[in-house]
Amino acid sequence: MADFEVVVLGLGGIGSATLLHLARRGKRVLGIDRFIPPHSHGSSHGHTRIIRQAYFEHPQYVPLLAESYRLWRDLEKLTGEKLYHEIGVLQVGPESGVVVPGVRRAAQQHNLAVEELSPQIMRSRWPALSFPDSMAGVLEAHAGYLLVEECVRSQLAAAKDAGAEVQAPCEVLRWEGGNSIRIHTATGMITAERLVIAAGPWASTLLGDLYLQLQVRRKSVFWFAGASHFSAQAGYPCFLYELPSGVFYGFPLIGSQGIKLAKHSGGQRVENPLQVNKSIDAEDEKNIDGFRSLYLPDVTNQLLEHQTCFYTMSPDDHFIVDRHPQANNVVFAAGMSGHGFKFSPVLGQALADLSLDGGTDLPIDFLSLERLSTL
């Protein structure tokens, strides 16, 4: 008999959610991570993550987001932790761009409430932000942010309460398929009937035979000191700007964290996630300073904190969630492309369904591996 019915490799947002769903279905399940989660070596850290439903990336994500919202609320009830904070998300860009038309399209197709705003109205409502006359704005009120480390911590705690085991830190060297999957770690071998891989920037190593063409990018995140009037408490939302220089996003003052700013587009390619310089990159700093000075003129250059994280990009910037084509008892999620965390609980449910039932009622067909063959 195998040591476990299911083993989950990677315990970030999606892996920890998968562990919880499997444990709540009564399975003997083990979660493994190279570091002790939540940690700052992958993609599930940085204090906060934006969550929104009018999804400019593609309207097909919206039903998954509706379920994800429900599951985040369920997790809050289960753990007693406040994880989701609804302060709204303001998205700004040209009428001919990707962001604003994409938000409108998703909202129209799925009957979501969004508010159209002119530059003049935005300036009067949020004077600490700047809005060029050439930009349009769309505010989604039923959106906001998640406390990312607390989300991971809560999912893991609930999974353990439901009977899951966690082995971390634990380095996975490789796995071998078969009726009993053999997972070779730095400290020994573990066997499982089924395997779930949600390894973030290490997905290419663990799924190397699939040639997923994933690209890991290093991203910098900055927190600056700001005046108290530029806060969530004062009515400022999270914000995202589509500009000629790229896509930037930020958060107002939240507690003592400072004003968080980052560039969503671009990033430096990473060959080995373990060998990344986490100091401030001059080009990243220049990009953020340029954005801050033009669009947040009241925010000083007093830096409170800097972190790096990873985006694991798929060839088309959409997730890959599927069964391994050569191993029916192995399922995976990879290539979250910098916008996956908000989907953690629903993708965890989808992976649990795929692993245990061979399929899921959730609408994830558009995220299948097969689509990549047409690119």
What is shown here, in short?
This protein has 8 helices and 20 strands. It is of the alpha+beta class.
Note down, in words, how this protein is organized.
- InterPro entries: FAD-dep_OxRdtase (IPR006076), FAD/NAD-bd_sf (IPR036188), MTOX (IPR045170).
- Keywords: FAD, Flavoprotein, Oxidoreductase.
- It is an enzyme of class 1 (oxidoreductase).
- By secondary structure, the protein is of the alpha+beta class.
- It has two domains: 4-45 and 149-214 and 316-374, FAD/NAD(P)-binding domain, CATH 3.50.50; 89-141 and 215-312, D-Amino Acid Oxidase, subunit A, domain 2 (D-Amino Acid Oxidase, Chain A, domain 2, 2-Layer Sandwich), CATH 3.30.9.10.
- Helix content is 25%, strand content 30%.
- The chain is built from eight helices and 20 strands.
- Helix 1 (13-24) crosses helix 8.
- The radius of gyration is 21 Å and the shape is globular.
List keywords for this structure.
2 domains; FAD/NAD-bd_sf; EC 1.5.3.1; 30% strand; 375 residues; D-Amino Acid Oxidase, Chain A, domain 2; alpha+beta; nine-stranded mixed sheet; eight-stranded mixed sheet; FAD/NAD(P)-binding domain
